[in-house]
Amino acid sequence: MAVRSVGVVSPQRMVFDEPLRLKSGGVLPRYELVYETYGELNAAKTNAVLVCHALSGSHHVAGYYEDDPKNIGWWDNFVGPGKPLDTRKFFVIGVNNLGGCYGSTGPKSIDPETGEPYGSRFPFVTVEDWVEAQARLADRLGISEFAAVIGGSLGGMQALSWALQYPERVRHVLAIATTPKLTAQNIAFNEVARQAILSDPDFHGGDYYRYGVVPKRGLMLARMIGHITYLSDDAMAEKFGRALKHGAFRYSYDVEFEIESYLRYQGEKFSRYFDANTYLLTTRALDYYDPAAEYGGDLAQAFARAQARFFVLSFSTDWRFSPARSREIVSALVHSEKPVSYLEIESKAGHDSFLLEHPHYHAAVRAYLNQVAV
In which residues is substrate bound (predicted)? Predict the structure, then answer.
């Protein structure tokens, strides 16, 4: 186990009896959020940092569980004592989003009105809804202002949304490998993935829980599609090239190339622990996010209300959310006269670079966070 790990952690649960009215028009009359914390909240409660997770992430950001030591947090290389987000200085919070499948109220949860899992009846949720729920959790924890809100990919969208929904409650935003809205190509990828799930015979309109099955095939295909977009062509070529699984062609539609074997493995593994309805809801939340929409597409005008300082990072080979998308954010912030720093990191790893321990990337975040007052 890494010496600088936050060590053994335990998820916590907060129950909310106040109804949450969602942007879609739906209402959750009662809901729960699962979260983890690392480090200590100082007496003035000025050192809290919220980490927002991406599509398949969760509240388990760092450390490991006593009864499951191999279950290490998804950003463990980033959060901990001496790491870029240093828990000797900051009190870090990770929250599983509503609609998730790691304990927060989601499609697998019991609908109090029917006594059965929500399934297809779980309402659509948006990035803005997640931020609203996170703000309520912060209220319960006595945190009126975050020193920083940080996120990569979909997590970056949440970080940006914090600056717009609660400008007075966040001092710094770190938006990493993210975008102000999806392109048509990105929406198309999400749609193909959703169709893979929706057309699975075991999907049962989203109510597969009552049949004791999961749309495993569809979820597997959805993950394979997504996984291709998280990697760069260079990273795939370097790792797999055209290497053959069996040393020679077998002239079949079974696995011939190593890359096929890898994708099938990743898809099958994902289908064992992730929930199909959560995948559908989360990709739709990605599609819907567009903070400039209510300002006629003017992102600079949308950012006019922000009070935070921004640090925007992108990765050279990220074609899912390319550096050009990050520069859109930076340009809008500059035009709205907001303080912003921007860095494009040279990396071969594509979109998933933000999850990796890249020396330049980590050094840049560490340097930025070192100057954040608490």
Answer: 223, 352
